[in-house]
Amino acid sequence: MDLSLTIFCMFVGAVLGLSFYLGSKAKSAKGYYAAHGEIHWFVNGIAFAGDYLSAASFLGICGMIALFGYDGFLYSIGYLAGWVVALFVVAEPLKRMGRFTFADALDSRFNSKGIKLAAAISTLVVSIFYLIPQMVGAGQLIKPLLHLEHYQGVLIVGIVVTMIVTTAGMVSTTWVQFIKGSLLVVFCAGLVVLILQRGLSTRSDGVGKSRAFKVVPASEILRLTQTTEVPKEGVWAKKPYMRLKNIQTGEITVWREDHAALTETQVVLIKDGTKFINGKRFDPNGKLDDQPKLYSVGSIWKLPGGVKETGPLGPIEYFNTLQNSTVVQWSGDKFKDDDGTDVTVYFQKLTKGADLLVPGNSGTFKGLQQDQLIPKINFISLMLALFCGTASLPHILIRYYTVKDQAAVRKSTVVGISSIGFFYVLTFYLGLGAMTSGTLDVSDTSGNMAAPLLAQSFGPIPFAIISAIAFTTVLGTVSGLIMAASGAVAHDLMTNFLKMDLNDHGKVRAGKIAAVFVGIIAMALGIVFEEVNVSFLVGWAFSIAASANLPSLIMLLFWKGTTKQGITTAIIVGMVSSLGWILLSADTFEKVYKIKNHAGFTPFSQPALITIPLGFIVLIVVSLLTQRTGTAAVATLNRETAAASH
Amino acid sequence: MKPCNVYELIKGGLFGQRFRMRVGGIFGHSGLTIMSDLGSVNDQSNARLGLLLFVFYLLIYAAFMGLNAFYPQVMRSTPFGGVNLAVLYGFGLIIGAVLLALIYMVICKSEPEPRSEGK
């Protein structure tokens, strides 16, 4: 067993062992669903971070920054801003009103079967959509570390997490999240210190599996490379590439025409089922170390002042220097050759640092630098979803019930915001560090492996530690999500909606059985969605959560006229409209259905700008139409409360 | 249920006595009624402070979205340390949220008795 794998197994084993030990005493329903309400506020605060800083935050954001610069940081900003809504508006009233789940709080003044059902379904839908990116991230982490396939990684995570949840519910989940949250923040801070110490350099050879790629004047290419040009025929005639045949070896290389220069590329061919990487045959049955590999990429082309390396940089200086540098980025071009060969050409793009440190480089945000209105609306809609989504995520909301009172809720949320905010500041350095450290996998179009590969540039031990932390990251978040979903099924649906007569032990058993089913669904979806960037997928969950849950939460807190019919309808309309919008959007056609250049059936891809206000409007209109019953119910409850308090 | 006139309901219900969230009340001492009305006076005071801080942050966040969407060139300017406004504003939003959360925790009043064991 190699060193990385040993460290990885030790880390994961220690985390699991500790969580099982600490969680072994939770036997009752209150213990299983809410950890007896006895978690210390500081532990709960860090567990908030452990719960929230998911694979999307760690792998997805770092990957997106590594590939597109500032665009990934927009997610960091939006995810953190959402905590402002959670702390200032939702946290304390929700604690006052609820018991185990978000549905309890919504239903606290109505005792409505409709609310219970709608809230439980919404919790399930949001949790499952949030589970998809976590499982995708897990599968991708396992690939380079254990040399297993994506689906095997997904299955390992699914089984381990289901074990955590079914063993001791919220107590063990909390401890896994606490340990993972602490480790993630501390080790990422360490990694950022190493990035700043290393500074920036134009040296791209000798780090990992990368090497310097050539850029040659077109007029001298044949002489300098000792090659002859292969005639441009068929599909190659329409492409900006020149194929050169080495005079001595006969090896063919592909160069991209870029103004007066030619830049070296990397090429993958699949011909009659056989794969060729940079001209060399890949043997699927051969030893892994002997196989041809694509070179790692990501480097600086030119630093300010013409220096080769900067030496250690301060946190502000790092941005300043990068802004005035030129970065080598890579893109892929997939097409079929005339003889049916699948060709993928990976080519270099020189990009100014100043362009990477403003929004608009990724497909999601590219319209921001243009004049059309629709991409701008799309951007605002996504940022709105991130802002409103956090306070509506069921797996975050259930954590308010694991501490004893409102003051503890407040303090733990502040601890959560502080640690999460600190982490999101780190993500920018981690992403940019990965972008320039020559460790990116050129074929990883999602960028999800950028952070662990960055750690690899500092040696095998940091790589193993960061991979293990990323793995526990997935475990922490997935266990929270499965807890939320199992609570929705067992507590909201079976006990409260169907009025099944379950004793305390029965409630816990129902929750565990539900957890197993949700775990199986999560594993299946994690395998299906392998190739999609996890941040993009999390954007979906936020949109659905914000559209389905936020209008009801806010109006219940602030409008006396809210009725049970209003809440039920708003949840269903918000959920169905946002989900439908997402499934019919152009982004989904391209990234999930793999249908290119389809305009979709919605004017823009992100639904929140329309579906959140729609949820509010539906709630207000339906509540007004059913006002008499609703007001009477509130008045009755108020009378009862007043009587009880005297 | 009696047949109802939507106009009357909107007039009387949404903008009349029954609509109890008054934004003006956020900044003063009158008007804001948190509908989780089982809350104490301290809860009301905390909620008012929370809403004030929320509205403050929302305005800054909205300005960030607006600048990025409609004036992207402004984000390229470098007002401090040779670092552009996009980076500074982004960090400002994250650090600002943490600072506001700390301010909230310091100012908030805690309830005198433990009373939230659920229902």
Briefly, what is this?
The complex is a heterodimer of chains A (646) and B (119). Chain A is an alpha+beta fold.
Shape assignment of chain A: globular
Unreliable runs of chain B, pLDDT <50, ≥5 residues? 1-38, 113-119
Kindly report the oligomeric state of this protein. heterodimer
Greatest interface and its participating residue counts? A-B, 79 and 65 residues
Beta strand % of chain B: under 5%
Structure explained in plain terms:
The complex is a heterodimer of chains A (646) and B (119). Chain A is α+β, with helices and mostly antiparallel strands. Chain A folds into two domains: 3-200 and 394-531, Sodium/glucose cotransporter (Up-down Bundle), CATH 1.20.1730; 215-369, no CATH class. Chain A is built from 22 helices and eleven strands. Chain A has helices at residues 3-22, 29-34, 41-52, 55-68, 70-97, 102-106, 113-146, 150-198, 221-225, 315-323, 353-356, 373-389, 394-397, 406-435, 450-456, 460-497, 504-528, 534-558, 564-583, 586-591, 608-625, 627-645, and strands at residues 215-217, 227-230, 241-246, 252-258, 261-264, 266-271, 274-277, 280-282, 299-302, 326-336, 342-352. In chain A, the strands form two sheets. A six-stranded antiparallel β-sheet of chain A has the order 8-7-6-11-10-9. In chain A, strand 6 (266-271) and strand 7 (274-277) form a beta hairpin. In chain A, helix 8 crosses helix 14 and helix 18 (534-558) runs parallel beside helix 21 (608-625). Chain A starts with a helix and ends with a helix. Helices cover 56% and strands 0% of the residues of chain B. Chain B has two domains: 1-33, no CATH class; 38-113. With 119 residues, chain B is mostly helical. The model of chain B is unreliable at 1-38 and 113-119 (pLDDT under 50). The two termini of chain B are 30 Å apart. The interface between A and B is large, with 79 and 65 residues.
